Amino acid sequence: MLSVKGLFTEYPNDRGQTVKAAQDVAFEVPEGKLFTLLGPSGSGKTTTLRSIAGLERPVAGDISVDNRVVYSSSKNVFVPPNRRNFGMVFQSYAIWPHMNVFQNAAFPLQVRANPPGEKVIKEKVMRVLAAVGLEELAGRDATRLSGGQQQRLALARAIAMEPRLLLLDEPLSNLDAKLRERMRFELKRLQSEFKLTTVYVTHDQSEALALSHQIAVMSEGRIVQLGTPREIYERPRNKFVADFVGSSNFIDASVRAAQGEPGAYRVTSALGDLDVRSVGRLAPGDKAVIAIRPEDVTLADQALPGGQNACQGRVEAKVFLGECVDFQVRIGETLLLARAHPSLRTPVGENIHLTMDPEKCIAIPNTVETAPQ
Ligand SMILES: Nc1ncnc2c1ncn2[C@@H]1O[C@H](COP(=O)(O)OP(=O)(O)OP(=O)(O)O)[C@@H](O)[C@H]1O
Ligand SMILES: [Mg+2]
C-alpha cells in the first residue's frame, strides 16, 4: 500500500551546513495496518512523515501509495501535498477557528469532489466525534476548546475523511495520562474498524507497543530496527533499541559455545555462566552484551529448584511502585534491576535468589551497530 524507499531528507542549518534528518529510510505499510516510527527527539520521525505528506521535498528516494508514485527523485515526480489526499494530524495541529466542532470535522467531507449527502456526513462525523469524546461539544466554537480537546478534534477530522493514508504525528501528546490511554484504545478501534492504513509517530514506547502492527525504531535519521512490537521488545538488535524500548539490564559477556537449537548460546559473565539467545550468529570468544528486562528477572527468598540461569545476590535497595516493587540486587560487582510482585518482602541487606529464563536473556553483539536490517 505505502512504500518508502531510500528516502533522504536534509535541511540547511543556520551555519550553512546540512542537517541529515532522514537517512536511507525504507519501509512498507500493508493495507489497513498501523505502522509506527518510534524514536527520541530529533531522530527524524516528523521529517519522514512530512516527506510522505509532501510537506518536505526529499533529496532522494521513492514514495508510492497504491502503486501511484507521489515522489521519485529518479523519475522527477513530486505530487503536491493537497493532491495526495492523505489525512494528517501534526504535532502542531490546526483547527479552523471560525467553525464549530461539527463543521471542523465535516468540512473536508463537504469540499470533496463527490461529497456524500448531508445525512451521511452527519452520521459519519457524529460517530467519529463520539469516539473521541466530543459528541456533546459538536455545536461549540472550536476556539473554545482546551488544547487536548482541539487535539482530539484534529484527530476526528482526519479520521472522518476516511483517507487512503492517515499520517499522525504524536496525536495524543497533549492529553493527560488517563485520557491518553483511553484514546489509545479508541484510536486502535477506529483504525481497525475503518481499516485505515496509518503511519504513526511517537517517542512513547508503550504507545508504540500498544498500537502498532509494525514499529521502526529511529535514531539519528536512520531506522535501526524494524519489526513487530514483540520482536522489538523481546529481540532488540542493538543496545540503543534495548535501552530506548523499555529499561534493560546490560551485562558484559563472552561467548563460550553455541548450543543445540539455533540462536541458543552459552556465555560467561559477571553473573556466572548464562544460557542466552541471539538473533545474529555468534562465535566462541565473541564479546556480547546480554540485555535482560527487570520484569524477566525472577526473584525468590529460596533457591528455585530447576531454575535456569540461577545466581545469588544481596538486596541493595527497593522502590515500591504499587502494583510491583523494583529491587536493586548486587551480585558481586554487578547491580541488577528486577521487578517483582509486592508480595516479595525480602528486606534490604538480605540475600536473594535470582533466575532468568534464557529466552529472555538477549545477546547483542558488542559492536557499534546502527545499520538497518
Ligand atoms: N525546518 C528545519 N530546518 C532545519 N533543521 C530541521 C528542520 N526540521 C527539523 N530539523 C532537524 O532535523 C532533525 C530531525 O528532526 P525531526 O523533527 O524529524 O525529529 P523528530 O524525531 O520528529 O523529533 P521530536 O520527537 O522532537 O518531534 C533534527 O536534528 C532537527 O533539528
Ligand atoms: Mg517530531
Structural summary, described in words:
It is a single chain. With 373 residues, this protein is of the alpha+beta class. It folds into two domains: 238 residues, 3-Layer(aba) Sandwich (Rossmann fold); 126 residues, Nucleic acid-binding proteins (OB fold (Dihydrolipoamide Acetyltransferase, E2P), Beta Barrel). The protein is 22% helix and 35% strand. It is built from eight helices and 21 strands. The strands form four sheets. A six-stranded mixed beta sheet has the order 7-8-9-3-10-11, with helices on both faces. Strands 2-1-4-5-6 form a five-stranded antiparallel beta sheet. It binds adenosine-5'-triphosphate and magnesium ion. Magnesium ion binds next to helix 1.
Structure summary:
This protein has 373 residues and is α+β, with helices and mostly antiparallel strands. Helices cover 22% and strands 35% of the residues.
Residue share in helix: 10-25%
Tally of individual domains: 2
Report the CATH architecture of the largest domain: 3-Layer(aba) Sandwich
> Strand count, sense and closure of the main sheet?
6 strands, mixed
The run of helices and strands is EEEHEEEEHHHEHEHEEHHEEEEEEEEEE
Number of strands: 21
Which distinct ligands sit in these coordinates?
adenosine-5'-triphosphate, magnesium ion
The CATH homologous superfamily of the largest domain is termed P-loop containing nucleotide triphosphate hydrolases
